Amino acid sequence: MSGKTLYDKLWESHLVKQRDDGTALIYIDRQLIHEVTSPQAFEGLRLTSRKPWRADANLATPDHNIPTTKAERSRGLDGIVDPVSRIQVRTLADNCREFGITELDMDDIRQGIVHVVGPEQGATLPGMTIVCGDSHTSTHGALGALAHGIGTSEVEHVMATQCLIQKKMRNMLIRVDGKLNPGVTAKDIVLAIIGEIGTAGGTGYTIEFGGEAVRSLSMEGRMTICNMAIEAGARAGLIAVDQTTIDYIKGRPMAPQGELFTRAAEFWKTLVSDADAHFDRVVVLDAADIIPQVTWGTSPEMVAPVTGVVPDPDQEKDPSRADNIRQALKYMGLKPGTAIKDIQLDVVFIGSCTNSRIEDLRAAAAVVKGRKVASTIELAMVVPGSGLVKQQAEAEGLDKIFTDAGLEWREPGCSMCLAMNADQLPAGKHCASTSNRNFEGRQGFGGRTHLVSPAMAAAAAIHGHFVDVRDILLEPARA
Amino acid sequence: MKAFTVHTGLAMPLDRANVDTDFIIPKQFLKSIKRSGFGINLFDEHRYLDKGEPDSDNSQRPLNKDFVLNQPRYTGASVLLARENFGCGSSREHAPWALDDYGFRVVIAPSFADIFFNNCFKNGILPIVLDKEVVDALFKEVNAAEGYTLIVDLPAQSITRPDGSVIHFEVDAFRKHCLLNGLDDIGLTLEDADAIKAFESQWREKSPWYFTAA
User: Fold this and answer.
1) According to the model, what pLDDT value does residue A254 have?
2) Which residues of chain B have a CB within 8 Å of the CB of A166?
3) B55-88 burial, b for 16+ CB within 10 Å, e for fewer?
4) Cα distance between residue A350 and residue A361, in whole Å
5) Pick from B26, B195, B214: which is nearest to A56 by CB?
6) What is the largest CA-CA distance in chain B?
7) Secondary structure of residue A22 in the 3-state scheme
8) pLDDT tens, A423-446?
9) What is the C-alpha separation between A184 and A214, in angstroms, rounded?
10) Which of A291, A378, A468, B59 has its CA 20 to 30 A from that of A147?
């Protein structure tokens, strides 16, 4: 009999009951809650007079809908200009109070994007099962936790029962062997993976990411990769626990401390796939082949290396794929054969649960330091993932580097990644964005998104079009 | 949840792969704290020519006449015929809420995104996976014949075409049971409350570090 995958281990350790029909009840250790997908779940509890099974397993913070300008944020809840958004943020606060759930509210320094806040606070721990009414919950798999995005009915179900009804997924291993080239980041790895397997390639699987290139990433980089597992179709992504994971967790406020931490860490070290574990599918990439990636279309799989060109639908043999390319190019206003480096940009967005952690901001700052945003760029903004990321960045002087270069420095939230608040990409404008989705209208009605790494977005801000960040990094450093 | 047994409805083709949840319901409508009223904004960015807002008077907005939903022959459609990877993207349950609120009870596609697929069952919508070749044939037929109506029989797991021919489909037994009876998942799970409590107490014993309060 072959060994177990990390996913097998996490599944088995949380199995409450296997039903005859193939579904199972899985115990959930942590639920993260935000303002958009929770109001109807709380309302459901009220209507049925149900109480949370374990209120202390939940942690809430508003992120999707809240403003990021100082003007609006400095006046608290009442300062939110959009009345519909204000009601939603207020409803979260009211619901958390009513049901005894801890909320890091919009005035709390710890507030931020749920997927940044969870790991940062130590609310995300290896070996946990984690859910949130947000598809990018896969992020937390970077810490060796089994983390799923769920719908609002399931949010209510987990609140009321501490369990999720699930069917076991199949196991996929994506191994990125060898060392990354300088200037190539976690974002480029995951975009290259999605380019390889497609946006439905991981449907029905839990994907474990491994190999030397993944193992050598920081926790921030690992979170970027697992974050986008869902863009490859997989509800959950995973990375095995190692010393990097344990060092990251140590000392975080909601993590176990002292002797309990030592005991936990011993257990966490077992959270790796066995050497003889069976994976239903294995995909292998060579890190040396990966160069900075840029999406040109309206699906994350529509991606090319920065040295490449926009594809020609007439060269595509599969007619339905050719149609997809045509539709995408029409929406994006791009012609086949255009060099990626010739795509002119109007807006630059650095932020989102994919790329708004301190390492991301450092990478972007390193590129813009001592330089100026191109005059053709109408808006370049940096939105830190949490109040604590913001504080750390300011302590390092990154805010000053950004503002000196002409980028706006904002308050934490999801912002222009999904444009539920006022941060919207205008119609027809091209945006270099460090977020995770380039769907039609995602960043704003008619907006045209190009997904890239923070360093690539920063370089694009300086030049007004895409450039190979590796060329910039080779230039002598500026004061 | 409302029960689903047998549904007879007009089919509408949405000939586009990778229809994402932003396509189904754009983000500005997610600010609602209610579960209903999303149908008028289903496929908003394609159905209307302008950008909609939660407070828009939709009756005054310019319609995109080319979009399939606005074609008179599909008025009252309740069976959506779709392409690969339907419902990809966000976990927003507003997507099935919008489909349901508009009146769609069945979505047929060669493949679905996992979270969306799951969310459908929680809202009385039946998502059906059929082979690509079968879906291709249905697209051809629905385009060719006005008033193309399908009978979707969940107990029999069958779809009957206008010509009387029958297509069989697969559905997970537990989901079928819940949908047929309109069962509330939570009530069902709470029947296992003792098993959950027993699991929880051994897990707390074994891994106390997961039980420190957030």
Assistant:
1) 97
2) none
3) ebeeeebeebeebbbeeeebeebbbbbbbbbbbb
4) 8
5) B214
6) 64
7) coil
8) 999 999 999 999 999 999 999 999
9) 12
10) A291
Are residues A63 and A112 in contact, defined by beta-carbon separation less than 8 angstroms? Answer: yes
With contact defined as beta carbons under 8 Å apart, do A143 and A179 qualify? Answer: no
State the amino acid at position B151 in one-letter form.
I
**What percent of chain A has pLDDT above 90?**
97
End-to-end CA distance of chain A: 60
Q: Taking CA atoms, what residue in A is nearest to B121?
A: A153
- Contact with chain A for residue B51, Cβ under 8 A: yes
Tell me how far apart the alpha carbons of residues A434 and A203 are, in angstroms, rounded to a whole number.
24
User: Could you tell me if B208 lies within 8 Å of chain A, comparing CB atoms?
Assistant: yes
pLDDT band of A479, cuts 50, 70, 90:
very low
pLDDT averaged over every residue in chain A: 96
Residue appearing with tokens 């993590």: A255
Given pLDDT bands bounded at 50, 70 and 90, which one contains residue B35?
Answer: very high
**Is B91–A149 a contact, with Cβ atoms under 8 angstroms apart?**
yes
Query: A233 vs B113: CB contact, 8 Å cut-off?
Result: yes
Q: Is residue A22 very low, low, confident or very high in pLDDT (cuts 50, 70, 90)?
A: confident
Please give, rounded to a whole number of angstroms, the shortest distance from the CA of B130 to a CA of chain A.
16
**Across residues A270-299, what is the average pLDDT?**
98
Q: Identify all chain B residues contacting A50, using CB atoms and an 8 Å cutoff.
A: 186
Q: Do B174 and A23 touch (CB under 8 A)?
A: yes
Q: Residue by residue, what is the 3-state secondary structure of chain B?
A: CCCCCEEEEEEEECCCCCCEHHHHCCHHHHHCCCCCCCHHHCCHHHHECCCCCCCCCHHHCCECCCCHHHCHHHCCCCEEECCCCECECCCCCHHHHHHHHHCCCEEEECCECHHHHHHHHCCCCEEEECCHHHHHHHHHHHHHCCCCEEEEECCCCEEECCCCCEEECCCCHHHHHHHHHCCCHHHHHHCCHHHHHHHHHHHHHHCHHHHCCC
The minimal CB distance from B89 to the residues A13, A37, A437 is found for A437
Min Cα separation B90/chain A (Å): 5
pLDDT attached to residue A327: 96
B111 touches chain A (CB under 8 A): yes
Residue numbers in A near B51 (CB within 8 A):
427, 445-446
User: Does residue A474 carry a pLDDT above 80?
Assistant: no
Q: Is A56 exposed, middle or buried, given 0-12, 13-18 or 19+ CB atoms closer than 10 A?
A: middle
Tokens representing A241 are 């626990």
Q: Which of A199, A254, A445 sits opposite B18 (nearest CB)?
A: A199
Q: Is A249 in contact with A143 (CB distance < 8 Å)?
A: yes
Q: What is the pTM of this model?
A: 0.96
Share of chain A above pLDDT 70, in %: 99
Q: What is the pLDDT of residue B30?
A: 95
Whether pLDDT at B213 is above 70: no
Q: What is the C-alpha radius of gyration for chain B, rounded to an integer number of angstroms? A: 20
- Between positions 15 and 44 of B, the ones with CB within 8 A of A are 16-18, 20, 22-23, 26-28, 30-35
- State the pLDDT confidence band at A294, using cuts at 50, 70 and 90: very high
pLDDT value at A301 more than 80: yes
What are the pLDDT digits (tens) for A46-73? 999 999 999 999 999 999 999 999 999 9
Q: For residue range A185-225, list pLDDT tens digits in order.
A: 999 999 999 999 999 999 999 999 999 999 999 999 999 99
In this prediction, residues B20-34 reach a mean pLDDT of 95
CB A159, CB A41: distance < 8 Å: yes
Q: Does B140 touch chain A (CB under 8 A)?
A: no
